[in-house]
Design goal:
The chain has 394 residues and is mainly alpha-helical. It has two domains: 221 residues, Citrate Synthase, domain 1 (Orthogonal Bundle); 102 residues, Cytochrome P450-Terp, domain 2 (Cytochrome p450-Terp, domain 2, Orthogonal Bundle). It is built from 17 helices and three strands. It has a three-stranded antiparallel beta sheet with strand order 1-2-3. Strand 2 and strand 3 form a beta hairpin. The two termini are 20 Å apart.
Length: 394
């Protein structure tokens, strides 16, 4: 029987309210970490416009901002950088585990496993005090990039490279990945990418982290859950699919024929449209500018030209135009990461390498004023079903 035919059942309603699928439009937390206005195309971290931060700040400073609610003084930033650089080293046991994983494993699955494993070697893993959280967040900031660089080298048959203490976060990652002094332009482009993706309110992975934290669980468990959510194609994996799309197109001349074909097949244009933004994603323009700088420096403009042409063609299509579907953060992240030399199947890991700053900020905010996150479900099944013996079941 349905709810509407069983008013005698406690809690049943004559007409159950429709559930808001995906919690669309529902406010589930108070937060001072970031602000998103999808209609106006605004993203702010702690009140600072993302475009301002992209122009003037860098990733380590933004991590401090997200964790502390304000920009650091010069001395505070020096202290934070010094602390962060001591946190870059991976336990030998974790590197050994990375060596034993299949070389064809999904890099996001590897990162998820490694972060969970790192908890066993963190002396404060089970402590949820504010100072312990700060220490663990700092360690994870460095270690998550170390995991990605080490596994990429291992699966290529190369030895992991120890981090350098004289390099900022983005430059050090490129060093650990390649073993070569990073090009300043590439390091700056990657740093700006990390700034732009560090935080984005209650997206699926951040919400997952807060749900885990609300149970009183530890930071590593919350981040492991966030990584599992980010791995999904509807969330973090879209940036990899965007680059695979550009590779499929192949040439600028093929953009329009490709677009017409995929439209007739009902396929999506990856990197176009956003669950929140009804205008162009505010992160798209800075990313596009960075790709253009890389193009000027390297002369390799093929993927940038394909992306630009595809965006121009798509927004002239009535479906995209009528729905205000524009480029999102993934659209220009893909050619940017590709131009820096990041392997395509690790693009989602790069997303995680940035978002770790926002995730850890949200876990701390959740713990500071916690209540177990426990929403309700709108039950649509039957009530008081009579038992049927097994021999009588048809």
């Amino acid at each position: 029987m349905s709810n509407e035919t069983r008013p005698d059942v406690p809690g049943a309603q004559a007409t159950p309210p429709a559930a808001g699928k995906g919690l669309a439009g529902m406010v589930v937390a108070d937060s001072s970490i970031s602000f998103v206005d999808g209609a106006a195309g605004i993203l702010e971290y702690r009140g600072y416009d993302i475009r301002v931060l992209a122009d003037h700040s860098h990733f380590e400073e933004v991590a401090y901002l997200l964790w502390n609610g304000r920009l650091p003084t010069a001395q505070e930033l020096r202290d934070m950088k010094a602390q962060a650089r001591t946190c870059r080293f991976l336990p030998p046991e974790v590197i050994a585990a990375l060596r034993n994983l299949p070389k064809k494993a999904d890099p996001m699955a590897v990162m998820r496993t490694a972060v969970s494993m790192l908890a066993h070697y963190d002396p404060e893993s089970e402590e949820n005090t504010p100072i312990a959280h700060q220490h663990k967040a700092c360690r994870l900031l460095g270690q998550i990039s170390g995991v990605l660089a080490a596994y990429e080298r291992i699966r290529r048959g190369e030895e992991p490279i120890k981090p350098r203490m004289d390099l900022d976060h983005a430059a050090n990652f490129l060093w650990m990945l390649t073993g070569e002094d990073p090009e300043p332009l590439a390091a700056r482009a990657l740093d700006q990418y990390l700034v732009l993706l560090a935080e984005h309110e209650l997206n699926a992975s951040t919400f997952t982290a807060r749900v885990v934290a609300s149970t009183g669980s530890d930071l590593h468990s919350a981040i492991t859950g966030a990584l599992g959510a980010l791995k999904g194609p509807a969330h973090g994996a879209a940036v990899q699919e965007a680059m695979e799309q550009f590779l499929e197109i192949g040439t600028v001349e093929n953009v329009e024929p490709w677009f017409q074909r995929i439209r007739s097949e009902g396929r999506k244009v990856m990197g176009m449209g956003h669950r929140v933004y009804k205008v162009r994603d505010p992160r798209a323009a800075p990313l596009m500018g960075n790709v253009e700088k890389m193009v000027v420096a390297t002369g390799e403009r093929e993927w940038f030209d394909i992306a630009q042409k595809l965006e121009a063609v798509a927004i002239q299509d009535s479906y995209f135009r009528d729905r205000n579907v524009s480029a999102n953060v993934d659209f220009y992240s893909a050619p940017l990461l590709y131009s820096i030399g990041i392997p395509v199947d690790t693009f989602t890991c790069m997303f995680a390498m940035s978002r770790i700053a926002g995730w850890t900020a949200h876990v701390y905010e959740q713990q500071a004023d916690n209540r177990l996150i426990r929403p309700l479900a709108n039950y649509t099944g039957r009530h008081q079903v009579p038992w049927t013996a097994i021999e009588e079941r048809g």
